[in-house]
# Entry
Amino acid sequence: MKMRTLLAALAGFSMVMAVEAAPVDAAAKARVKVMLTGDCADGEHVEDADEDDCEILVSVTPKNKNVSARLEINYDEEDPEAWEEFDSGRTRGGRLIFSLPATEDDMWMDGVVLYRVVVKKTAGVKLPKMREYRVEYISALAAEGDEDLAEEIEEDKEFNSEMDKAQQENKQFIQQQQPNADIKQGGTQGGQQGGFNKSAEFNRACGAIGFPQADCQKLVETKSPSDAEKILGSKAEAWCTALAAPPAGMKVPCSMVLPRAFPPING
# Structure
């Protein structure tokens, strides 16, 4: 089951938070982060249940340091030599987005596809450890007769409806703001209620998992997903789920939460 309502809400948070550039030690190396985002982030992309919004985000901190990268694809997970270049580009303003289409010739794909991103070596940049992303595409035709999958699709359709409602509420909230008014992290402006209080929400999540207060404050002050993940360490996935506050028993991966809670600077 995909947390579309969560993503819509987090998208709203990222729209109303004003992000300020943090000072960076000139001697420190820039860092690159690669993340799989969208409805395929859990490793499945199901027709009629998921949006065709699968992407791989390449982000650089600080944002004034850019890198070139290429997206490679492998249609045969049994053949480690079957990789081929699918797309390439260069970050602008600290980020690059590769779209991963779910259709070919207007038909939803079936089967497993592997993806990986190769970042070109760049002076002063610490490259990430390369990893492979496995996405299983499931068409509506292939899902016929699978009762469990059919039930999941119906549940996700309900989430689609809730997501649309949440996105509309977010848009209305933004439109209600005064022209050129900034809503700062950790509070609201002009008495406006309903904004994302970063400090309060992060502290709530920290308290829920017993995360140290001193480290939680560092989390509030940081500006990037990669830095947040370093601070959280082994507690990252538990914290992301606590921040999202999904229904009991559900887990929400950081690949969905962090890019929304810590959007790239000026991204």
